[in-house]
Amino acid sequence: MGKSSRSSAIKKNNQALKKKVFGPVETARIERQNAKLLALAQAPKELVMEDNKADQEDSTSTEKEPETSTKDTTMDVDEDGKPKRSKREIARMQEARKARAVSKLRGSRSRPRNQKEFPAHKLKKKVHKR
């Protein structure tokens, strides 16, 4: 009896495990993380940056490719990469934007959802009161 997860025996066992087993493991993990962070913080930043630059220079020197002429590969595309919109479409969008702004100012004229009354379904049988 008393073997559910709410029983005091199970609770005491879990508390003991937390103290004896999982507690030291967790503190050791936190200490390792702190040591790693301190090592990163104390490392000279210039040396770290120089190492990255040296790696980048090595990779760029090994990957030299012949340059293609830009005149042959350019395409007749806008610099933005966006398609141009017609005057008609721009006017329609501006009109819609104005309508949204006006409706925000007026607020909603419809009833809240919890107060709406929906019509009865056509196929539902009508109950006549006598």
TrEMBL record:
Biased composition (Basic and acidic residues): 47-98
Compositionally biased region (Basic residues): 99-113, 121-130
Domain of life (superkingdom): Eukaryota
Skewed-composition ranges (Polar residues): 1-16
InterPro entries, A to Z: DUF2423
Coiled coil region boundaries: none
Location of the region described as Disordered in the Swiss-Prot/TrEMBL record: 1-23, 41-130
Domain named DUF2423: residues: 1-44
GO cellular component annotations of the record: preribosome, large subunit precursor
This protein's name: DUF2423 domain-containing protein
Provenance organism: Cercospora kikuchii
